[in-house]
Amino acid sequence: xxxxxxxxxxxxxxxxxxxxxxxxxxxxxxxxxxxxxxxxxxxxxxxxxxxxxxxxxxxxxxxxxxxxxxxxxxxxxxxxxxxxxxxxxxxxxxxxxxxxxxxxxxxxxxxxxxxxxxxxxxxxxxxxxxx
Length: 131
Fold this sequence. Notes:
The structure is a single chain. The chain is α+β, with helices and mostly antiparallel strands. The protein has four helices and six strands. The protein has helices at 37-44, 47-53, 69-82, 122-130; strands at residues 2-4, 7-9, 30-31, 85-88, 96-103, 109-115. The strands form two sheets. Strands 1-2-3 form a three-stranded antiparallel beta sheet, with helices on one face. The chain has a three-stranded antiparallel beta sheet with strand order 4-5-6. Strand 4 (85-88) and strand 5 form a beta hairpin. Helix 1 (37-44) packs across helix 3 (69-82). The longest helix is centred in the middle third of the chain and has 14 residues, at 69-82. The chain starts with a strand and ends with a helix.
């Protein structure tokens, strides 16, 4: 994914051996910075994106989407500290992913790479945590 004014743009994708495929994200898809691991990790590492994107009243895509300035700011601090982002049904129900930023020589975020090989584990993971 690469950053753009309107959101993170998916520029490539590689299907692994996982039998489940995320049909809602294709090459050319533009995703909001406040939901999903790839866009979120870019937002966490770009002050410019934060200035233009963070605001109250962001649209919710699921009941797990962060929509307030306070929620998002707190989460971005964790992402920056950890160096990666994890999403769990915050953009598409049942889809989880982990993403890391790709930084340029000057330290600015130029892209992100994400792994959705954990798709299909969300329901099992949530059920296990509840037990």
